[in-house]
């Protein structure tokens, strides 16, 4: 007696649409990626509860302030008196810029208030103190 | 009968397309930094802002000294109590009759105050829902 074998059903997922899926993911990541421009100073930002997200990464300028009072903008250590010109030229390029101040938690308020004064003089009035979520 | 000229295959092989796309995908996956930019937002006043006289009952003065001790309306407070005190101040005398918040919190740090304490104070004020926070420059000393 001859027993016919069952025809095996193909159990494989069709891979024909894989390139499309990958392309979709690729486009998503391409659109969302903003290259990190600068490394900045090594700072330990303070922790806070009521933190808000910044509106857009493209409209953000970063200012680093370390605990020994050095200030860095765009990978350059700057003098306090030059900060105003650097920031105001940034404000001219993108008037909606928010300044994200990444200051070390041990920085003294002397540094921070001088930064405040310079930012005000450069008309960079939107400020965000970078902070981490408090657990 | 004329035979049609044989058309050569013009298309390129698309079998490696998936691999190329994969490679690009991995590249973008690796370079993407999920935005970690979060912080306490504050709007600074205009540089030529003149001082406006504000009735003293609408101001809460917060002084921070260099040791991180906090004086709030001439009373020593702990950092964790600021939110409660500020909330009380807003509820008691922080509103105009039409419900606008007018309580101003004037934070005045010392030049040698640590930034961390200052941020904690601001954070506590934000927890209390303070809308008007003013930063006073430290006295020269």
Give the N-to-C terminal Cα separation of chain B. Answer: 106 Å
Rg over CA atoms of chain B: 30 Å
Walk across the major sheet of chain A and give the strand order: 5-4-3-6-7
Report on the biggest sheet of chain A.
Answer: 5 strands, mixed
Number of helices of chain A: 3
Describe this structure in words.
- The complex is a heterodimer of chains A (135) and B (141).
- Chain A has 135 residues and is α/β, with parallel strands linked by helices.
- Chain A has a domain at 47-133: Nucleotidyltransferase, domain 5 (2-Layer Sandwich).
- Chain A is built from three helices and eight strands.
- In chain A, strand 4 (71-73) and strand 5 (76-78) form a beta hairpin.
- In chain A, helix 2 crosses helix 3 (109-121).
- The longest helix of chain A has 15 residues, at 18-32.
- The N and C termini of chain A lie far apart (74 Å).
- The model of chain A has no long low-confidence stretch (mean pLDDT 81).
- Chain B has 141 residues and is α/β, with parallel strands linked by helices.
- Chain B has a domain at 57-135: 2-Layer Sandwich (Nucleotidyltransferase, domain 5).
- Chain B is 28% helix and 20% strand.
- Chain B contains three helices and six strands; from the N terminus they run αββββαβαβ.
- The longest helix of chain B has 15 residues, at 17-31.
- The radius of gyration of chain B is 30 Å and the shape is elongated.
- The termini of chain B are far apart.
- At the A-B interface, helix 1, strand 2, strand 6, helix 3 and strand 7 of A face helix 1, strand 1 and helix 3 of B.
- Strand 2 (52-53) of chain A pairs antiparallel with strand 1 (38-43) of chain B.
């Amino acid at each position: 007696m001859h027993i016919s074998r069952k025809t095996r059903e193909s159990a494989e997922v069709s891979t024909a649409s894989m390139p499309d899926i990958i392309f979709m993911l690729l486009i998503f990541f391409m659109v969302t990626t903003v290259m990190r421009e600068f490394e900045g100073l090594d700072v330990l930002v303070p922790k806070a509860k009521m933190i808000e997200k910044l509106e857009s990464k493209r409209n953000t300028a970063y200012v680093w302030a370390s605990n020994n009072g050095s200030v860095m903008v765009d990978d350059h250590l700057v003098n306090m008196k030059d900060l105003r010109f650097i920031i105001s030229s940034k404000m001219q390029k993108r008037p909606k810029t928010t300044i994200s101040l990444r200051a070390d938690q041990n920085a003294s308020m002397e540094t921070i208030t001088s930064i405040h004064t310079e930012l005000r003089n450069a008309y960079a009035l939107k400020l965000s103190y970078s902070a981490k979520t408090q657990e | 009968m004329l035979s049609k000229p044989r058309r050569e295959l013009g298309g390129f092989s698309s079998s490696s397309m998936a691999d190329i796309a994969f490679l690009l995908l991995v590249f973008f996956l690796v370079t993407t930094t999920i935005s970690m930019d979060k912080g306490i937002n504050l709007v600074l006043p205009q540089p030529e802002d003149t001082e406006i006289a504000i009735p003293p009952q609408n101001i809460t003065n917060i002084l921070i000294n260099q040791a991180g001790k906090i004086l709030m309306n001439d009373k020593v407070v702990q950092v964790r109590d600021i939110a409660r005190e500020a909330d009380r101040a807003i509820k008691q005398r922080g509103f105009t009759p039409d419900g606008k918040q007018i309580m101003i919190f004037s934070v005045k740090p010392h030049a040698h105050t640590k930034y961390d304490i200052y941020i904690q104070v601001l954070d506590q004020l934000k927890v209390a829902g303070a809308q008007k926070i003013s930063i006073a420059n430290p006295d020269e000393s």
